[in-house]
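Mods, move this if it's the wrong board.
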Amino acid sequence: MMQREVYFLRHGETEQNLRGIVQGSGIDSNLNENGLQQASLFYEKYKSEHFDLIVHSNLIRTRQTIQHFLTHDGYIENDARIREICWGEHEGKAGEPELMAKYYRIINAWSSGDYHAKPVGGESAFELGERLTAFISDLEKKSFQKALICTHGRTLRALICLLRQWPLSKMEEIEHSNTGLYHGVLRNGNWHFIRKNDLSHLNRTI
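Not the wrong board. Structure tokens:
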């Protein structure tokens, strides 16, 4: 059966990332200077790849991360299903002790298999998993040879779990960094990962 490749990429650094401020899906922030540099370095390493499908979320930081590829001939999609999880009352705020205690209660609940736990005004792991499962189903039906998909930290963690057929309780085991790359291969209906949170492009110079 034909083999297909997908490059799953987390967006570049934003000022909120740098300052430890929660963004989630409600904060539509731009990349900072370092994030733009990370995006450029990623492009320089992978610009010769023939991506015939490019997908980014509906948040600007993912589009900015892969903007250099948008002049290529690949088919480009904007898909809100791969936006970041909604962190509700945490969004736009830094690590205040009370909020951090709430945050870790939610993370611990998810790690224990309670996927319906969620922040006030936010989204649960179950809800995130539902939209990502639909996204994966549609992705696997598409006609492409090599795809580039730019998404977000928590979303990437959930995506990789689902692709590996791991429970979402293992999300915390998935490392992610700004412009960290997960290089996946879809072969005979199964996903295999060649590279995990790869940052080798950041060692390059432009």
